[in-house]
Every structure is written in structure tokens, then in C-alpha cells.
Amino acid sequence: xxxxxxxxxxxxxxxxxLEAVWRIRPRPHAIVLTHAHPDHAWGLRxxxxxxxxxxxxxxxxxxxxxxxxxxxxxxxxxYEVDGIVFEAFPVEHSILAxxxxxxxxxxxxxxxxxxxxxxxxxxxxALKAVSLFIGDGASIxxxxxxxRGHKLIGHAPVSAQLTWGRIARIKRAIITHCGxxxxxxxxxxxxxxxxxxxxxxxxAAIAFDGMEVVI
Length: 215
Ligand SMILES: [Zn+2]
Ligand SMILES: [Zn+2]
Hints:
alpha/beta; 8-stranded mixed beta sheet; 5-stranded mixed beta sheet; globular
């Protein structure tokens, strides 16, 4: 959930939110989707309590969802959603469910949120002047990447994402959407992520449920 002044925009709504999305308090004013995978969008299968924004490539894969207020979010154009500006950057991750990461700007603060990613197309534009990178926790060191023709699918490791952060001179990273490597050995993973961040000049940490960050 991204909040700014009176705005509240939720990003993604996985299947485990199918019932809970109706009970979120305070309510989100809008929901923005990164891609059509079950763990990012299928919580909206029975509808949504607010308008939902997604790129066409995502709506094309959610045609049966009973969402009343579907809104189109352009790719690569800053677009205001409830007073917060979202720019969708296409990322490699899946062929069946093409994904984006969001460059999110509110007032003078800017973050980049990409929960599933092999790599970000036009990464330097995506990460320029970003103060917080929120990235994919599927794996810490080992790339979980497969090749399909010219395309790559899967997940970049945290180590690679933090290197992107160093190159873009980002000072802080939070790793979310964690896979078994992180979840099964949390203390060790937390130390590894911190160390990888230190080596690259970033304050890097693993997200937890209920975490709140003020920028
Ligand atoms: Zn995915
Ligand atoms: Zn995912």
C-alpha cells in the first residue's frame, strides 16, 4: 500500500487476498497490478472494492474477472492514480503474464516497486533518482532464470538487483515477495541481504508483514 496525503493505492492483490481485499481498512482508493499471475492478481477474481488499474497486457489475461471499474494504465507514461504518479516499466519475468515494475512518485519522493523480475528494460530510466528500491525475494544468490527463445523468464537474485541499485546510486532497498531460500532460514538470509547491500553501498533489508516505511 502506497500512501500520500489522503491517497492510498494498493499494488497487487494475490489469491490469498480473495476474501480479505473486501475488509482492508483503511480502504484502498485504487489497486494497481504488475501482472496477471495468481499471486499478484487473482485476489480480484470476484471483483474489487475500488477501481483497478493495469496495463492492457494484464487486462487481456483477466477478462473473466468480475471487476466493475477496470482502468487502463499506459506503459512508459507517468500516470496519476489517486494523486500518486505511476509509470509502468516493462520487465522480463513471464511470457504468459507480461509484467511491469512501477516507478512511483508522490511529492518529492520516489520508489521503484518490482516484486517479480529477471531484468528491467530501460533500467537506467526506471531507477533514476529513486530513493527506495523494493525488489524480488525469490532467491538471494542463485538466478532462477530459464530461457524461452529470446526471452528470459523467472527471477533475478537479490545480489543482482542490489547491483542495479548500486549502479543507479540508490541508497536503500527492501526485498519482498520472498521465496523459500529466505523464508526457510530467515536470520541467515537477513544477514546475507544486509551484507550484499553493504558491499554495494545500500541499506538493504527483508520486508515483513505489517512493515511501514516513511520516506
Ligand atoms: Zn509472477
Ligand atoms: Zn510473484
